[in-house]
Amino acid sequence: MANCQPTLCLSLSLLLLLLCSKPVNSQQPQANISLGSSLAAGASQDYWLSPSGDFAFGFQQVTGGGRGNSFLLAIWFNRIPQRTVVWSANRNELVPDGSTIKLTEDGNLILADPSGRPVWNPNSVGSGVSYGALLDTGNFVLADRNATVLWESFDQPTDTILPMQTLARGTELIAKYSRTNYSNGRFKLDFQTDGNLEFETTHYPQMRSNYPYYESATVTADNLSYNQSGSLFIASTNGTILGNVFDNRESRNDFYQRVTIDHDGVVRQYVHPKRNNMSRWPMEWTVSDSQPPNICTGIKGFIGNGACGFNSYCQMESGMFPRCNCPQGYVFMDPTDHSSGCVRNFAPQDCVVKDGNDDDGDQFDFVEMVNTDFPNGDYQFLNSVSEDMCREACLSDCLCDAVLFRVDGQCYKKRMPMSNGNVDPANGGKTLFKVRRQDSTSITNKKDHSHLNTNVGWFLLGGSIFVNLIFLLASCPWRKNPPNSIDGETLDRGALSSNLRRFTYREMETTTGGFKQVLGSGSSGVVYKGVIGDHSSKKLVAVKVLEKMHEMEGHDVREFTTEVTIIGETNHKNLARLVGFCDEGQHRLLVYEFMSNGSLADLLFRREVRPNWYTRTQIAYSIARGLAYLHEECITQIIHCDIKPQNILLDDSMTAKISDFGISKLMKANQTRTTTAIRGTKGYLAPEWFRNVPVTAKVDVHSFGILLLELVCCRKNFMMEVEKEEEMVLVDWAYDCYCQRKLHKLVEEDKEAMEDMKRVERFVKVGIWCIQEDPSLRPGMKKVVHMLEGAVLVSKPPDPSSFISSI
Ligand SMILES: *[C@@H]1O[C@H](CO)[C@@H](O)[C@H](O)[C@H]1NC(C)=O
Ligand SMILES: *[C@@H]1O[C@H](CO)[C@@H](O)[C@H](O)[C@H]1NC(C)=O
Ligand SMILES: *[C@@H]1O[C@H](CO)[C@@H](O)[C@H](O)[C@H]1NC(C)=O
Ligand SMILES: *[C@@H]1O[C@H](CO)[C@@H](O)[C@H](O)[C@H]1NC(C)=O
Ligand SMILES: *[C@@H]1O[C@H](CO)[C@@H](O)[C@H](O)[C@H]1NC(C)=O
Ligand SMILES: *[C@@H]1O[C@H](CO)[C@@H](O)[C@H](O)[C@H]1NC(C)=O
Ligand SMILES: *[C@@H]1O[C@H](CO)[C@@H](O)[C@H](O)[C@H]1NC(C)=O
Ligand SMILES: *[C@@H]1O[C@H](CO)[C@@H](O)[C@H](O)[C@H]1NC(C)=O
Ligand SMILES: *[C@@H]1O[C@H](CO)[C@@H](O)[C@H](O)[C@H]1NC(C)=O
């Protein structure tokens, strides 16, 4: 089985463990759990199922815990590979093998360790209980003979709220400590006794509330409800809705969903398809909404740390995930725990009274961190000084660990420990960290924090998206470069002469049987399956209905038709062929040949069995050649603008074809830029989309680079469900592995790839060249083809973001 995705291997092995050891008695859904029933923690993996089988109640083995204590009594989603825990009884006191959960004859629910010592016993209700049941909502209840519920797990939530669950005032959810550690963490969701909902930091390890970074301001509310249709809202007893936290639009019939306060303090609403037949959705948890928008800048308390530990700084990655980093010269106090804060990796400046000053400022230098601030570290302020004076003031002051300098002459001296560090354009200026010069003695020889550059780059990308998007929306005209002087008539003839068929809307309705079967939907419209031709020669097609958005972009009819004609003239075996189009009134449709083997996204991310290494290399070559053709061989250069696995289709012989030219941008061959609206898909977009710089064919090269790394590793660029934080962003991880000469980590478990490490290395190097922040450093697609094929030597790529961090 070719795959190289660590978490997948993990969940597969869990699954295998499960399959091999599932006892007979727990395979049947358990309607009522009678008095005297019990489960034991251990290899047998006993659990009780809800009637639908969606949820299970029992023991989950987790890592860590020390001295063999590794079982969590939990409720989890049982039909998905991740078996996501939604509730647990003993998160702060894991129990060992041989522990039991028993519903006693006298109606008590007791978790006991192997010696019989009770670890957890929730129901003070005592007598009256006549049975227990795990309901289809994921709620475990104890009820009396009349089915009146006496105790329910919904009343004692852990870190997750499920649909149909209502929290009363005074209920708290506490985040996990880390991705893999379930014990109490540093953030909580607090539905206060007065009805106000807050997300707060705690005075960890105490759970008392510290700083609220989200407030609903709904005093007088009675309930926090997650209703059937997926809204999380705050209401009063009489039903009046006082505030809405999340509003999910995915149907509960097709999706599992949950709201969780994650270990990073962000409260996220997640959805997960129930069945593998929704092409737009990967079979994993997808964030449908989250609060607060930027936790890195949202926490401002004076006591305690911010979203990250002391002396570390926080930045949002891909606009969604806060990541904690250490300044250059600093390392995590606990390397396995990125929330532990950072400490110096060098001897600090002497700060004692003595006669000579042998350890003065000239042993030290500064590391610059643009737009970074540690707002709580300031102890002295100098105004109207030059940067040199600011630096000098810090070098000559042994108390000073860093300075924030702004171009208007503001200089803030800072000292440790610094908290609430974050990177944000609104901070302005730069923080200069005082570090010992490399030639002077340092405590250890540990490698400097090599993430720095990458991270700053990521941040600038992530953090500036919003600002620039607004800028673009506000100040840039929608694209306006229609190839002129083509009148409708010549165009029609042109269209007909190029084998491109023009359909009426009515024909399209017939072709698709009334737009019934959805094949997928992308950024620019929904794609339906259709059939054209008469009885003798039927042909399957994919019909894309473009959304109205296109009209806003100033596409007049003529322009649309022109684009279509140009695309229709492309002819390459790695491009999905355009068969025809429809352009009638408001209706704009594109008809492509049908690809029977689906999209590359399905192939890479959704199948249990990953495509083998050979197939993946062939797909990489195909895409590169198709792009080279679009960029360099067409009369009119075509920039695709949305290269991603969803837009690569596979025909019945598994040949990869680039599809979806719906949002392509056509340019005359000599044109280097247009001011244009952002097109494309987050995650694959090149940074220049967000800056006021020319957008060229190099945006496709960037997207291709990310896709190439995904192909090598069979995983998505961004993945939450990973073992180690540094593996969350594939491009960062791949670059780190490359620098550390540990490329094998990327393709572990993939035997074929492991035996072809030369090619793996070549592909990764090409991928890194393609994702350079500076578009001019990225090779053209022709060159990429040659590099992939090994026809030209691939030199050592620079850090993808070195360009940005030197600004
Ligand atoms: C569970 O037990 C209660 C009380 O005995 C009974 O009313 C209910 O029908 C039982 N439920 C199922 C699904 O057997
Ligand atoms: C989880 O983290 C806490 C705090 O660092 C630690 O005390 C505990 O042992 C960890 N638990 C596990 C299972 O690793
Ligand atoms: C169940 O209902 C009956 C009739 O309403 C009542 O008499 C009885 O006390 C109830 N039993 C319990 C345990 O609540
Ligand atoms: C809302 O809260 C009130 C008072 O705590 C409670 O009586 C009521 O049942 C709750 N509503 C729902 C839908 O649970
Ligand atoms: C859930 O709540 C939303 C408003 O928050 C409301 O529009 C929707 O109708 C509710 N759904 C159900 C099934 O009550
Ligand atoms: C419901 O309760 C809220 C506050 O508790 C109050 O403002 C509102 O007027 C009530 N609405 C109705 C219809 O009673
Ligand atoms: C997926 O399959 C289920 C049943 O197998 C069906 O009810 C549902 O409509 C299907 N969804 C789509 C989008 O085809
Ligand atoms: C691709 O399609 C062909 C024909 O439809 C089929 O035989 C083959 O199994 C498919 N391959 C994959 C990997 O799905
Ligand atoms: C681009 O090409 C057109 C026609 O081929 C020509 O008129 C124009 O001057 C060229 N522009 C530049 C910047 O070279």
TrEMBL record:
GO CC terms of this entry: membrane
EC number: 2.7.11.1
Topology with respect to the bilayer: Single-pass type I membrane protein
Domain Apple: 351-437
Domain Bulb-type lectin: 40-155
Positions of ATP binding: 544
Domain of life: Eukaryota
Record CDD domains: B_lectin, PAN_AP_plant, STKc_IRAK
Record bears the keyword Protein biosynthesis: no
Segment forming the signal sequence: 1-26
Catalysis: reaction(s): L-threonyl-[protein] + ATP = O-phospho-L-threonyl-[protein] + ADP + H(+); L-seryl-[protein] + ATP = O-phospho-L-seryl-[protein] + ADP + H(+)
Protein kinase domain sequence ranges: 513-789
Keywords: ATP-binding, Disulfide bond, EGF-like domain, Glycoprotein, Kinase, Lectin, Membrane, Nucleotide-binding, Receptor, Serine/threonine-protein kinase, Signal, Transferase, Transmembrane, Transmembrane helix
GO terms, molecular function: ATP binding; carbohydrate binding; protein serine/threonine kinase activity
Cellular compartment(s): Membrane
Cross-referenced Pfam families: B_lectin (PF01453), Pkinase (PF00069)
Family, per entry: Belongs to the protein kinase superfamily. Ser/Thr protein kinase family.
Protein name: Receptor-like serine/threonine-protein kinase
Source organism per UniProt: Linum tenue
